[in-house]
């Protein structure tokens, strides 16, 4: 303890200064030296230790607290333990706030169990009573580490402990709700949420936002939106985070109308949209193909002094690529760079991949050179996009060259890189080299995912190696790898080519039972339709066509050709197929599938099989509905631009 001299003391001031100076000089001289390889305690702790041993200085509690903060900030846990034990020996007073400092340090060092252990030692070893503050601090460390099950386990243990007698507060419930939502236990999170008022607490913006986010992840958006109304009724005004959670979810779902209403609501509540809001809206517009509106929104964003970030630009450019307008995406990049922004590797990879898929390989190579020239070093993603493009162009030797360059520069090829090369070799008719790439993947510890398996099965089936494909299929099943549409369709095709149509039909029925995850596409249906028509089983083919329509899959040009050929060659008397296609158009229009109906009419026009006047009237009436006019015009323009 430091004693303060009486106000009117006659003790000479200079003598006091001299004595203190002499004491600290001696203490510093007698400090032991440490080598750089040994553990170095904090210098200040050594000074205090020396003074205490000499008996000339008694260390105060505040000095210990300062040491705890210092060691915790440097994550020196060994020294922290030494300080705690010294305080314990000297019967010092432990404060909860010092333990909270240490809990945060354990969190920073990703040592949540150390924090839990120290929490349980607080009372028994250091005589410091735990309260909800220290409890929340440890709970937060566990949640931040992503150990959500462990967080709930710790919460239940502490709350159930009568000896601890800790009552959760609003922050505790927020952390518990977050953990439950991350684990997908949204209904349990709602139960906890409803208990909050019963515990004399009130949910805050964070509580509502966390629960909304959990509901949106489970696609329970209506419930999340109703929570927004509820929080306002309860007197909690939603903040920017709450609005952004809902706007983002609605935009991903494609419900731009409700998202726009929420933006209006934001303004009414005094919340100004930020880059997260705009990014969500741009993403939603791009998903809907409303690219011009997305560009307009970007300009509005700039005019509102909200700076677009890499996510904004990447989303917009990727939107153009997804719509088959990679060249327009390139123009957007040029415009952005003119304003001082730089494209990153994700933007370049999206554009290069898009240009290659559109058959504009020369533009893709120019963009590659431009990217390298601007100092944006290619990474695994960009290399993979270019290799995929070269494989699509059939330039497999060049693709191999870039793969070698990629490895030499330290970028590891991924499953997409190898699968592109495999597909390229199969399409070139060189199945041997494709299988060598498969083996190369295994040698380089690159995991064979469902895409790689699908490409291998598809390639083997097309190459007439059905038994080998069947072996790969069984291996895929034994390893629990998810089966995708390509794998199923390839095996169905293999069975049909081997004249085992019934086996292929069994796989098709399996697909139908998978739910929305793996549903047959038009290619799958065409494989079965063709197989039954070859067998002259026209009625079974029509059954498959009915399933196709019921499942929401529209026929394409190949579907029409399969039936036209069968009606012409296998019917007695032969039919030109006009009535069949006309009926198909009517059925699609009645289901409001105008695009599918338009494709069938296009086939009929090419084949000089004019639809009936009544069918024309139905199609025109459907297309010319106000909400469909703009969509129809967009379709026409996109076809003309091709």
What is the helix tally?
Answer: 35
Report the biggest beta sheet as strand number plus sense, adding barrel if it closes. none
Give start-end ranges of low-pLDDT stretches.
1-59
Task: Please provide the count of β strands.
Answer: 0
User: What class do helices, strands and sheet pairing give?
Assistant: mainly alpha
What's the overall average pLDDT, rounded?
A: 83
Q: Given the C-alpha coordinates, what overall shape results? A: elongated
Content of β-strand: under 5%
Distance, first to last CA: 87 Å
Proportion of residues in helical segments: over 70%
Radius of gyration: 35 Å
Family: Belongs to the PPR family. P subfamily.
InterPro entries: PPR_rpt, TPR-like_helical_dom_sf
Keywords: Repeat
Protein name: Pentacotripeptide-repeat region of PRORP domain-containing protein
Overview of this protein structure:
The chain is mainly alpha-helical and 642 residues long. The chain has a domain at 1-28 and 42-57. Helices cover 71% and strands 0% of the residues. The chain is built from 35 helices and no strands. It has helices at residues 13-29, 43-54, 61-73, 77-89, 96-108, 112-126, 132-144, 148-160, 170-182, 186-195, 205-217, 221-233, 240-253, 256-268, 275-287, 291-303, 310-322, 326-338, 345-357, 361-373, 380-392, 396-408, 415-427, 431-443, 450-462, 466-478, 485-497, 501-513, 522-534, 538-550, 557-569, 578-590, 594-606, 613-623, 626-641. Helix 7 (132-144) runs parallel beside helix 9, helix 11 (205-217) runs parallel beside helix 13 (240-253) and helix 19 (345-357) runs antiparallel to helix 20. The longest helix has 17 residues, at 13-29. The chain is elongated. The N and C termini lie far apart (87 Å).
